[in-house]
Amino acid sequence: MSDASNILVTGGAGFIGAHTCEALVRAGFRPVIYDNLSNSNAAVLDRLERLTGSRPAFIHADIRDAHQLERVFTDTSFDAVIHLAGLKAVGESVEQPLHYYDVNVTGTLTLLAAMRQGNVRTLVFSSSATVYGDPATVPIHEDFPRQPTNPYGRTKMVVEDILADLAGSDPDWRFALLRYFNPIGAHESGLIGEDPSGIPGNLLPYVAQVAVGRRQELSVFGNDYPTPDGTGVRDYIHVVDLAEGHIAALTHLTAQGGFVTTNLGTGNGFSVLEIVQAFERASGRRIPLRFAPRRPGDIAACYADPSHANRLLGWKALRDIDTMCADAWRWQSRNPHGYGGKDGS
Ligand code: NAD
Ligand code: UD1
Q: Cα(first)–Cα(last) distance of the chain, in Å?
């Protein structure tokens, strides 16, 4: 048994979680995954073992299960928790707000109570750029007002507030609130990647499934936005850069403690059409598309000012849009039906 630090990764079997586990192993940590597999597949454990040479410990359980969490902190000594378990589909959150508040907010409260009991007080939390809603200007700084426009975004804002209150009550707590922009791509090995169930709601997995032949054409939601080509502009960040941002946050908290809130983005905005072109370059395939009406709740442009994370954490996104698309394509073309061949089409 090595003396590497144990890090509990809730939601560690998911898209960002799996890449974070890989980055943790690379940085010398030992991730322990806690996940109920409601939006992921146990096959990711085999892939992580192939990729890193060690199989992460896995606890198949729900984040709202207080007894199970208590046992986890009794059985193993953890240095910190990276909390990614949660629900993330905006449309679903409008239809099922109670379920979203239950998993995302009650789940976090249950986790925090177990951490306090187990005397673990360092947590990295996955927040989202969605807390900014429709920003008055771009790029977005951390001190912009939070005005989420849907229940999913509000669950993230509520959790941010809970963590701030807890930090105010007891200086021993150490928190990093990471506001992700649009994570895409996959590990360069093609072994782990994004595997959405059903019809993808997000742009990149949809484009990738068109390229691989699972979907006929992309609907571009709106071409009359006040952007250079009329389509929506976002800050796409390679998921491995994002994963490495967690290591930087963890290292910062361990060394300096405190309460950190920071954007994780690249600072560059790309339009839907630019993404389609980049994916065509990466895959060598044509992506048929048609213009469709705007998607309700969408905004014109959203991209980060990443300078706070650059300064504070010494972290910077390194991978460009062509690398993001090439890696996403390698994953998609080698695993046309994701981890398990479960195809919701
Ligand atoms: P994901 O769905 O791939 O991963 C989430 C993981 O949490 C899944 O493995 C799922 O099975 C697990 N989970 C869900 N409910 C659970 C529960 N009740 N108990 C235990 N485990 C549970 O999503 P992701 O893209 O990897 O996102 C991870 C986190 O990052 C989420 O909290 C999400 O809100 C946040 N986030 C994601 C994005 C994005 O664009 N992907 C952007 C901003 C923030
Ligand atoms: C969405 C969520 C956001 C969440 C993020 C990650 C909404 C309104 N926002 O962000 O809260 O944090 O996903 O889960 O749902 N597009 C198309 N065709 C498609 C899909 C998308 O044209 O089939 C366009 C969108 O209009 C947008 C861009 O592509 O301009 C990116 O969309 P998407 O990947 O869904 O991300 P966001 O909307 O930024």
A: 44
